[in-house]
Design goal:
Blueprint (H helix, E strand, L loop, with lengths): L1 H9 L8 H31 L4 H5 L1 H22 L3 H18 L1 H16 L7 E4 L2 E8 L3 E5 L5 E5 L1 H5 L2 E3 L7 E10 L4 H13 L4 E2 L7 E6 L3 E10 L5 H19 L6 H7 L1
Antiparallel strand pairs: 1-2, 1-5, 2-3, 3-4, 6-9, 7-9, 8-9
Helix pairs in contact: 1-5, 2-4, 8-9
Length: 273
Amino acid sequence: MAENVTDTLAHAPLVNVDSTLVLNTILILILAYVSSRAVTAILVWVSEQVYGHRISIKMAIPLYKFSVYGIAGYYIAKSILELSTVQLVAFSGFAGAAIGFGLKDLVAEVVGGIVIVLDKPYQVGDKVKIGCHYGEVSDIGLRSTKLVTPDDNLVSVSNQMFLSQAVSNSNAGDQEMMVVIDLFIDSKSDATLAMEILREALVTSRYVYISKRHPAKVLLKDCPFYRRLRAKGYVYDLRQEFDFETDVTKRAWQAFREAGIRPPQLASLDVVN
């Protein structure tokens, strides 16, 4: 098999590398880069205008990037080696095997990027947790996925991590997202009243999105020294996750204090510890 590939490539004439060829190669790379940046900027702008389809439109960004750089690589290889279609296929397999041994991590990252685009475990705009990193996916590149964390930091996570670690997706391609808010009260406080107060704060929030498919719930768990109230509600735009959580928490605790509902007492927590 290897001999057949070598024989096929042996008949591929190698073009003399001169200044024109170098300039053409650089020009192709520059055009690919500029095209990628320009189309990305346009798609991001359009996605913000067509608000209901923001995530769907942004998912076209990595598809376009993979396509434009793949075409650029094809024309560069063809211009240098003047390969026919059969020879180009043979060269791709031969180069792939050679690169695979020397640049395994790089190949794994690129393969991970291709799998992400095709399998769609997450998309641009999703809120995901990869390893110990959580944030909104702002870009899916050839080698890495970029996340914007709640602290507004930009984190680059290797696409290779997707192949070896579990990925948690909070919205699975939807613009709406469930937000879970946990509040803890003293075990002697009135749990029924606390649930009513928390539900009122939940359903009256300016950020909440309620429908048949997106209900609002308040759950109670009775623990030995405290009670946990869990509010589950949706936001229409996942980017409002922390605004929603802050709004509900602030108004609920304000009403708790007025109703005499207290947080867990330090003495109880000391017993637990």
